[in-house]
Recover the amino acids of this structure.
C-alpha cells in the first residue's frame, strides 16, 4: 500500500516502534496521587531543561496554555497577545470561557511582537480600563510560518513586564525547533518568561502530552486548575515514557525537518504563481500564498489528494506545509513534483 505524505501538521506523527517498546515497559502509578514515577521523571526533566522550579504534565498544548492563563489572571484582566497567535485564534475561545479574560490583540510581522508595541498596549492605571496582567508570546510562531522569536526581543519584553509588574507566558509548543535552529538552549529562552508551555506531540513525535513549567508556587496553582479542568490523569507513565523517549531521541533530528522545509520552500519558489520567501522558512513550517494561481487553498488541497499528499489550506489563499518525523527527503521531492503538476 502506498504511504500518503501528510504535510498538514507535525501533530500527525505516529509513535515509532522503539517509542512503543519503551511505552510498553513504563513504570506507572496513580498520578493524581503524585505516584507515577515516569510522570514525575518527565516533569523533573522538563523543569530542568527549561530552568524552572517545577513542571506539570497535561494532555495538550491548549490545556497547557489555558492553565497558564487561568493561573496568572483574574476574570476581567487583559492579556496582550499577537493577533494571529494560537491561544487567541485556535483554542476555542477558552481564554474568555475559562478564565474570563479579554485579549488585546496586536498585529505583528510573522507573529513577532516587540517591547515597544507591548508598552503602547499596556493600560494606564485607571478604573475605566481593564487591568493588563499578562503578555503571551509564541516561539516558534505557528501562523507566522514557524518564525523564531529573537531572544533579544524576548529579553526586552520580559524586562519591560518586570518594570510594570506584569507577567509573560511563552507558548513554546515548538520551542524545541527554535532551539535546534539557533543553538540557543531551551532554558536560555525560558529565562525570559514566567511560565512556559511545551509540547511532546508535535515535532517530537509523542502521541500525546504537553507540560507547563514555572515557579513552584505557580505550578501549585496550575495543578489545582488542572484538576478543575478535568486534566488529572492516572497511570499515564505509559504516555509520559513516550515523552521521555522523544526528548532523548527526537530533538536533534528536528534539523532534518528544517532542511526538508527549506527544500520545499526553495522548490515551491520556482513555481511562478506561488508567493513565498524561502529565507522566512526558519524551522519546520512553510506558509505560502496562492492568490495568483486563481485557485483557492482548498481546491489545491483537493487536487493534491489525487497525488496522495495531504496539505492544509489556511484561509482562502494560503497553504501551510509542516515537515516532521514521518516526512522523508524523498517525500519532499515527491511532494514538489506533485505541486509542479497542480500549480505549475
Ligand atoms: N497547533 C495545531 C493546530 O491547533 C493548529 C497545528 O496543527 O499546528 N500552541 C501552538 C503554537 C500550536 O501550534 C498548537 C497546536 C497548540 C499550542 C495546541 O496544541 P494541542 O493541539 O496539543 O492542543
Amino acid at each position: 500500500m502506498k504511504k500518503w505524505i501528510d504535510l498538514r501538521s507535525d501533530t500527525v506523527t505516529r509513535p515509532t516502534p522503539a517509542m512503543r517498546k519503551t511505552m510498553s515497559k513504563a513504570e506507572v502509578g496513580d498520578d493524581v496521587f503524585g505516584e507515577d514515577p515516569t510522570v514525575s521523571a518527565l516533569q523533573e526533566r522538563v523543569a530542568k531543561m527549561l530552568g524552572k522550579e517545577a513542571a506539570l504534565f497535561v494532555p495538550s498544548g491548549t490545556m497547557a496554555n489555558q492553565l497558564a492563563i487561568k493561573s496568572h489572571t483574574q476574570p476581567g484582566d487583559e492579556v496582550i497577545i499577537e493577533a494571529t497567535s494560537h491561544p487567541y485564534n485556535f483554542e476555542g475561545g477558552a481564554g474568555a470561557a475559562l478564565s474570563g479574560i479579554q485579549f488585546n490583540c496586536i498585529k505583528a510581522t510573522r507573529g513577532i511582537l516587540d517591547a515597544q508595541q507591548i508598552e503602547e498596549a499596556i493600560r494606564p492605571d485607571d478604573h475605566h480600563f481593564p487591568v493588563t496582567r499578562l503578555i503571551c508570546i509564541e516561539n516558534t510562531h505557528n501562523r507566522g510560518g514557524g518564525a523564531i522569536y529573537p531572544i533579544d526581543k524576548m529579553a526586552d519584553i520580559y524586562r519591560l513586564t518586570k518594570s510594570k509588574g506584569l507577567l509573560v507566558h511563552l507558548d513554546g509548543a515548538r520551542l524545541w525547533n527554535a532551539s535546534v535552529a539557533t543553538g540557543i538552549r531551551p532554558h536560555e529562552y525560558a529565562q525570559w518568561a514566567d511560565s512556559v508551555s511545551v509540547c511532546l506531540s508535535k515535532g517530537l513525535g509523542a502521541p500525546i502530552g504537553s507540560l507547563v513549567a514555572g515557579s513552584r508556587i505557580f505550578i501549585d496553582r496550575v495543578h489545582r486548575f488542572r484538576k478543575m479542568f478535568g486534566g488529572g490523569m492516572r497511570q499515564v507513565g505509559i504516555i509520559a515514557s513516550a515523552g521521555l523517549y522523544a526528548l532523548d531521541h527526537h530533538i536533534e533530528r528536528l534539523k532534518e525537518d528544517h532542511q526538508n522545509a527549506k527544500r520545499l520552500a526553495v522548490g515551491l519558489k520556482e513555481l511562478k504563481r506561488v508567493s513565498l520567501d524561502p529565507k522566512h522558512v526558519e524551522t519546520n513550517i512553510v506558509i505560502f500564498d496562492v492568490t495568483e494561481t486563481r485557485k483557492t487553498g482548498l481546491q489545491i488541497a483537493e487536487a493534491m489528494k489525487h497525488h496522495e499528499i495531504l496539505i492544509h489550506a489556511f484561509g482562502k489563499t494560503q497553504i501551510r506545509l509542516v515537515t516532521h518525523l514521518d516526512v522523508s527527503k524523498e517525500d519532499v521531492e515527491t511532494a514538489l513534483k506533485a505541486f509542479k503538476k497542480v500549480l505549475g
Notes: Residues 17-249 form a domain with the Aspartate Aminotransferase; domain 2 fold (CATH 3.40.640.10). The two ends are 28 Å apart (CA to CA).
